[in-house]
């Protein structure tokens, strides 16, 4: 099995979990916050999609799906156009409001771009340094694993919140 096949499998698992988390939730459940500073399921899914979108688009030399496919306009969030959720406090996080269909559609579009690009990569390209701000410098392969880890954490958080909401 090639390294890119392993990465593609990991990204596929994120997609499965995103759809499991969103399936059948009401808008009230999507936007519920367990306490005033907690992130909602909508924010968690939007954030993980935005992070993957940005962090894949940059090394791939692609435009973010968020802008290229008009998702920014469809969501119509009262946030800066390039917002990804990094640094969001409770007030900003509360502004991320969307339907499950919109969240799932955006994630699917990001996933499609990510997998399409992953399918073009060679093992040698995974060794390319993409960030020299770290010691050691970050290779493309390490960056992709970081995206996987971050997205899996956030979808796991969303699943946990869903479970708590369903037991209320």
Number of helices: 8
Structural class category: mainly alpha
Shape annotation: globular
Overall pLDDT: 96
Which consecutive residue ranges, at least 5 long each, have pLDDT under 50?
Answer: none
Order of helices and strands: HHHHHHHEEH
Task: Summarize the helices and strands and which ones pair or pack.
Layout: H1 3-22, H2 27-31, H3 41-60, H4 65-68, H5 71-75, H6 90-94, H7 100-118, E1 129-131, E2 138-139, H8 140-167
Antiparallel strand pairs: 1-2
Question: Explain this structure to me?
Answer:
By secondary structure, the chain is mostly helical. Helix content is 63%, strand content 3%. The protein has helices at residues 3-22, 27-31, 41-60, 65-68, 71-75, 90-94, 100-118, 140-167; strands at residues 129-131, 138-139. A two-stranded antiparallel sheet has the order 1-2. A hairpin with a 6-residue loop joins strand 1 (129-131) and strand 2. Helix 1 (3-22) runs antiparallel to helix 7 and helix 1 (3-22) packs parallel to helix 8. The mean pLDDT is 96.
């Amino acid at each position: 099995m090639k390294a890119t096949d392993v990465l593609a499998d990991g990204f596929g698992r994120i997609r499965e979990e995103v759809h499991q988390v969103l399936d059948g939730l009401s808008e009230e459940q999507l936007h519920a916050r367990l306490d005033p500073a907690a992130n909602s399921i909508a924010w968690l899914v939007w954030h993980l999609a935005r992070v993957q979108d940005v962090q894949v688009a940059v090394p791939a030399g692609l435009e973010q799906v968020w802008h290229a496919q008009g998702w920014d306009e469809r969501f119509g969030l009262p946030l800066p156009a390039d917002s990804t959720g990094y640094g969001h406090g409770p007030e900003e996080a509360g502004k991320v409001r969307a339907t499950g269909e919109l969240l799932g559609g955006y994630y699917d579009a990001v996933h499609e771009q990510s997998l399409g690009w992953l399918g073009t990569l060679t093992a040698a390209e995974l060794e390319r340094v993409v960030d020299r701000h770290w010691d050691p410098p970050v290779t493309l392969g390490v960056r992709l694993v970081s995206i996987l880890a971050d997205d899996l954490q956030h979808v796991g958080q969303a699943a946990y919140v869903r479970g708590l909401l369903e037991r209320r």
